[in-house]
Specification:
This protein has helices at about 5-15, 30-60, 70-105, 120-125, 135-145. The protein has about 150 residues and is an all-alpha fold. It folds into two domains: about 30-110, DksA, coiled-coil domain (Four Helix Bundle (Hemerythrin (Met), subunit A), Up-down Bundle); about 110-148, no CATH class. The longest helix has about 35 residues, at about 70-105.
């Protein structure tokens, strides 16, 4: 089981950022905090855009007209899975752009449902979060109940 220190190091390696160190008496969503999340979101968006470019290049390079129907079907399935993943990433890029606009408008970091602070650590884990953990948990419970 990873320790908190190992988990923190893992986050730094995966996302490439240092967790925000709050200053004593610092107000929530100060200019420094907003700059921190802007940096995280822009880096994440850049990584997603690079993945889109890699997919396009891969599909161009790998596109072939196989004479064997099974080979063609395998290639089409592979491309279909890649395109589905890129579509999810495209939607995520739109959500990142919306979140960046919220930061610019100084409306970032508060729960859409109850209005309380979402929290820095939650936002570092999920920078596009728009609900506090309690409201999100409640929404997921309601979704499960309605979905059954």
């Amino acid at each position: 089981m990873p320790t908190n220190e190992n988990q923190q190091q893992s986050n730094e390696l995966v996302r490439g950022f240092q967790p925000y160190q709050e200053q004593p008496g610092e107000e929530y969503m100060s200019e420094g905090m907003r700059a921190h999340f802007t940096k995280i979101l822009n880096r994440w968006k850049q990584e997603l855009m690079q993945e889109v470019d890699r997919t396009v290049d891969h599909m161009k390079d790998e596109a072939a007209n196989f004479p064997d129907p099974a080979d063609r079907a395998s290639q089409e399935e592979e491309f279909s899975l890649e395109l589905r993943a890129r579509d999810r990433e495209r939607k995520l890029i739109k959500k990142i752009d919306k979140t960046l606009q919220l930061i610019e408008d100084e409306e970032y970091g508060w729960c859409d449902s109850c209005g309380i602070e979402i929290g820095i650590r939650r936002l570092e884990a999920r920078p596009t979060a728009d609900q506090c953990i309690d409201c999100k948990t409640l929404a997921e419970i309601k979704e499960k109940q309605v979905g059954k």
